[in-house]
């Protein structure tokens, strides 16, 4: 009996050698690529992402790299650093795009498409993101508070979407602390045009020290304009910085006057005469140049009397 078992085991081994089990080809282990493919499956059949496939023909691993897929860019190490499918007519949601697999992503540009659903909470995991543009889609819901983790984002554009709710002050840096660690610390361009966002602007928005563009038109914001906006650097970044402290002081005064003119209550806004008085007072303190005061005075003299 023992000899019979030995014979059967030997015969089975020979069969396995001659007829090995069929190979099940597995795609290369690339978490980022696999995350993109899972998202692709949720987008149905769209030619925009038809190049997103694993191709192992002749063992060509380069053909399997997501770095060769449409809209994907990578660094020298092969890590995904950019996802740009703007103006492609892409349809679907971001629900099945797991952002945790893209820790080195620098650019996410999906503007002018037909994406819908909510902005996922895990978008806040893109800790190295610099550019985020989801504008001109059909996103709804509120802005997730996790966006405050995008401390390196320079431009954020959610314009022309059906996003609702109020701006949470925690989205912006808390400059009252010794060193702010969360909030949109690096933001230079913030655009919320043509949205359903409403309510007052949080005073913390004035803590965006590097902000140069703030576009909120055609949304539903209400209430007073925070005086903290006077702290913002709104000069065109293409302009050279003022070389003299005198000019910086003049620009600061003009900016503060501009914020004063934007008060909600018309009766609390300054007249042109008030503005010239402020500038003249500052000139007496050695801040404004006589030429600046004179130009404002001349403008006032040319205007009809306002009631």
TrEMBL record:
Residues 34-75 form the Leucine-rich repeat-containing N-terminal plant-type domain. Keywords: Leucine-rich repeat, Membrane, Repeat, Signal. One of its GO terms (cellular component) is membrane. Residues 1-25 form the signal peptide. SUPFAM superfamilies: L domain-like. It is found in: Cell envelope; Membrane. It holds the Pfam family LRR_1. Its main location: other. PANTHER family: OS06G0587000 PROTEIN (PTHR48059:SF30), POLYGALACTURONASE INHIBITOR 1 (PTHR48059). Belongs to the polygalacturonase-inhibiting protein family. This is Leucine-rich repeat-containing N-terminal plant-type domain-containing protein. It comes from Rhododendron simsii. The lineage of its organism: Eukaryota, Viridiplantae, Streptophyta, Embryophyta, Tracheophyta.
């Amino acid at each position: 009996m023992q000899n019979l078992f030995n014979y059967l085991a030997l015969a089975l081994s020979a069969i396995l050698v001659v007829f090995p089990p069929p190979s099940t080809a597995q795609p290369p282990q690339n978490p980022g690529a696999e995350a993109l493919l899972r998202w692709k499956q949720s987008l149905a059949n769209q030619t925009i992402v038809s190049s997103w496939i694993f191709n192992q023909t002749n063992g060509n691993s380069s053909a399997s790299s997501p770095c060769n897929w449409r809209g994907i860019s990578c660094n020298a190490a092969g890590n995904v650093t950019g996802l740009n499918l703007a103006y492609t007519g892409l349809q679907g949601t971001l629900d099945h795009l797991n952002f945790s697999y893209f820790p080195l992503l620098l650019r996410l540009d999906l503007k002018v498409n037909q994406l819908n659903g909510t902005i996922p909470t895990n978008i806040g995991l893109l800790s190295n993101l610099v550019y985020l543009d989801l504008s001109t889609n059909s996103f709804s819901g509120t802005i997730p508070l996790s966006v405050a983790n995008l401390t390196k984002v320079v431009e954020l554009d959610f314009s022309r979407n059906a996003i609702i709710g109020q701006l949470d002050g925690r989205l912006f840096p808390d400059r009252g602390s010794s060193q702010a660690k969360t909030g949109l610390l690096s933001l230079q361009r913030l655009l919320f045009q043509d949205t359903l966002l409403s309510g007052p602007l949080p005073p913390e928005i004035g803590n965006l020290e590097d902000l140069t563009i703030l576009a909120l038109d055609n949304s539903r914001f209400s209430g007073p304009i925070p005086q903290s906006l006077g702290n913002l650097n709104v000069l065109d970044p293409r302009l050279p910085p003022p070389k003299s402290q005198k000019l910086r002081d003049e620009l600061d005064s003009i900016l503060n006057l501009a914020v004063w003119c934007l008060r909600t209550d018309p009766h609390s806004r300054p007249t042109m005469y008030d503005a010239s008085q402020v500038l003249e007072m500052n000139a007496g303190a050695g801040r404004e140049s006589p030429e600046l005061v004179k130009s404002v005075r001349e403008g006032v003299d040319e205007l009809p009397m306002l009631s």
